[in-house]
Structure formats: C-alpha cells, structure tokens
Amino acid sequence: MSVLLPASEAEAEAIIGEAAAARAPLAIEGGGTRPTGRPVQAERTIATRALSGITLYEPAEMVIAARAGTPLAEVEAALAANRQRLAFEPMDHRPLLGTAGEPTIGGVAAANVSGPRRIHSGAARDSLIGIRFVNGRGETVKSGGRVMKNVTGLDLVKFLAGARGSLGLLTEVTFKVLPEAETETTLVIAGLDAERGVAALSAALGTPWEVTGAAHLPAEPGDVSHTVMRLEGFAPSVAYRRERLAAALAAFGPAELLEGEDSRALWAAIRDVRLLAAPPGKAVWRLSVPPMEGPAVGRRLEAALGSRLLYDWGGGLIWASADETGDAGAAAMRAAAAAAGGHATLVRAGPATRAAVAAFTPDPAPLAALARQVKTVFDPAGIFPAVFDAA
C-alpha cells in the first residue's frame, strides 16, 4: 500500500479530489498507533504526518491549535511549559495494542480519545472548539473557532469528532485547555467486590469533593481488588477534600493514600488499560453501560468468557478481555451490554478477527440510514472508510 504525505491542505485537496474522481478508496492514518475497526480495503493511504506544527497557542486565552499530524507529545509539552493540559486526559493506545509510532492530535480528535478524567471534564469532543478538514469532494471546510460559543446550524466540530476519518481528513484542530493541577491524591480502598466497589465510586462521585477519576480494579492472582478515586487541585484544597471524602466513604473501609507521582503513575496505567495489555493474544473490548449496571455486566462476562475486567468512569466504562477465537466474544459482549442499555466496541484483535467481526455495535436501521445520508453529503464518492455498521 502506497502512503501519500500531503504537506499542505492544497496537496490534501488534490489527492482527495483525484481519488474522488476515480472513486478510489483511501485509508487515513495519523501516527498509526490505533489500528481499530475493520481493515480498510484501499491501495493508497493518506497520512497526516507532514501536516505538523502548532499554529496557535494563547496561554492566557487557554486555547491551542495544531495541524492534525502534530505529535500529541509536542502539544502536551507546549502546554506543560505553561502549566496547562488537555482536560480530557487522552489515552495512549500503544501499550494495549502493541503499536509503535507517535499519537497525533488529529487522531485524538478523530477518534474522540478520552481518559479517566472524562467523568469530570468531559470527552475530547467537549474541548474541541474548531476544526479544518478536507471532505470527500476535495474541498477544505472550516468549522468552529478559537473561542467557546453557542452553535447554530450544523455543528461540524461534533460531527467530525469520533467519526474516525469516515467524513473527511482533519487538517487542523483547536482545543480549549485547562490549568494543570498543582497536586493530586488518590484514595485507595482495598478488598471490595465489584458491586461494593462501584457503589463506593458512585458515593464518591455524588459528594461535592470533585472526584476527577473513579475506577475499580478487580483482584488479580496474588492480590486484592482496589477501588480508587482521584482528587486534584491546589494542595490545601486537596488535603481538605481527601479528609472529607475518606469520612464520607468510611462505611466501605479504610482508605489508603497515593500521592503525587505514585498517583499519576496509577492513573496513567488505568488510562492506557495496561492491566489488559498482556497476554497480547487476547481480544479486548470496551463496553459503555450505566455505571450501576457495570458489576452485573462484568459478572456475565466472567461467567460466559472468563473475562478479565477493569472498571473506569465510576463503573460506566468496562474494559474486558476474551479469547480471540470464533467471534472473539462479540455475541456475549454485545448481549451483556445491550441488556444493560449500553454498547460494546472491539478495540484489540488481530487483522483476521477485525475483518470478520464488526468493531462497533451495529446501528438500528433508521439511524444507519441517517448515517448513510450524512456520509453521502460529506463523501459522495465513498472514498473514505465506512467504519460503522448497520444492524
């Protein structure tokens, strides 16, 4: 497969316009760190690596814009120099997927990549305030801006966030950012089962103490479970809130504390799902369900598939493993998620499994029809990957 590296929007327009005229499919690649979904059947890949560089950074206005191929690490380093950060804590998929390369800021927006802080600060799409992209006609489109404002008409920023390149090639993204926390502390309650662990997380999230991370790590061989809640902010505020939160959760057991770097290391591991990185031959699924339904869903998966689990977002996000045989657990995963009113996404599997198993829960027919209409508007020749399936 040949790789095309446009260095400007004009070059991207020419490549995409030519592909549209020939009705020749294009695969889209950022840093190549997130090969999820069905493998794209295309002879050529258009990659954003040459579309790189921060185009605007106003620390006082807390806004940053960068070309889509800019390494995420470059954006985060620029923000860290001014004690700022991306609020949504984007996951690094490399430990879980075993990939190399560098995640890009465009890839983060295209896949709506969000981490544990989503429960407090929202997803990537909630911080994304402006985009530039080339649609399937070879036209550059600009949407949004560099300030937060009310939207009238079609909100293309939200349409493109999470569309995974199915509607167009992102060329530039603009994010609102937040100040970096002065310090953080994590409260750890050991030995709870999933039901009690998620109940503790729900209780913590229901307090006024601004929990920015809430996860339950089930027991592993030779260890006990850990229910963890993160507090961030100015040191005096964190000290006050951790005492109040520990008192509010006393019925669940005593809380130990992880401070500073130890806390950051724990949440980086949760963010990147390192608990399920090994063994690499297992399929890994991501289930979104109502938080209080999480333990029941987990029990079904343990019984049906022997899944190892990790609960994030207060129990509403479940990472689950399955043997990569047959449908890699698809039927059981989707049945368990649907029974709870949620959905399941295949995140890690080999190419053969990804070709055979739909990565995303198929849409109901009316929604799928609407999605096809939207795609036809953006990509009439159908040259970009169609990543979602119909039921």
Automatic annotation (TrEMBL):
Residues 1-180 form the FAD-binding PCMH-type domain. Keywords: FAD, Flavoprotein. InterPro entries: FAD-bd_PCMH, FAD-bd_PCMH-like_sf, FAD-bd_PCMH_sub2, FAD-linked_Oxase-like_C, Oxid_FAD_bind_N. One of its GO terms (molecular function) is FAD binding. The keyword Flavoprotein applies. It comes from the Bacteria. This is Glycolate oxidase FAD binding subunit. It comes from Prosthecomicrobium pneumaticum. The lineage of its organism: Bacteria, Pseudomonadati, Pseudomonadota, Alphaproteobacteria, Hyphomicrobiales.
